[in-house]
Fold:
Amino acid sequence: MVGDSRSRYGSAVNTAELAERGSTILDRLTTTQTPPPWQLVIGTGAIALLLVVFRPTWRILRNIVTIAHEGGHAFTALLTGRRLNSIRLHSDTSGLTVSSGKPYGFGMILTSAAGYPAPALVGLGYAALLGAHRITLMLWLTIALLLVLLVKVRNGYGLLSMVVTGGIVFVVSWFGTDTTQAALAYSAAWFLLFAAVRPVIELQRNRRHEPNSDADQLARLTRIPGLVWVLLFGLVALCSLVLGARLLLADTTGVCVPPLTHSTCA
Structure:
């Protein structure tokens, strides 16, 4: 009887702790958080840049870029009325998103064009949320988007990549301190902003050997040269990087982009 009572008491305590933590997170989703110190903002940016330019880490972390890339294709397919069939992520960091609909037209063009800009635009969106001091909201939106994509993943490596990525974000957002959450959030934003540029360079370099790249598919759909599409992808990535950096550094440098940040404009 004593052992059973203790077990029930422990279960009640655990349930109460979970409820309290869940309530805290709900409150944080609708409120702003304290901006992290400038050392964290600058430090996470420097580390993210090193992770992108250092080849061994890039080979592993490029999977995150692939998730964003294929997510761009997937969400755009849905938004343009196409039927999303499957998403596959491969260990060589390539991916494939399959959708049904007309093999031509505006919807197909937008779907094909959405992949390479997606990491940059996600990074820019993250920067906007962090510039507005919405760290918790940014982390839980990431989890929600990953869960939506997970439903359509159709291969083992893809499932593993999604679960590991989402699991890390969940553990940090649920159990991590404010500083740990800020470190992950800013690292993710900086990484996507920097990382969005490198695949565009790789795209142009490998087009001779990959005639079915996104740029070449778009060239066949629109009769606009593939190089023009590559340059457009690069422009989106660079512009997102510049604007995203301004947002992330706003509290540090005094740069203000109203109404997205809380900095005082000079």
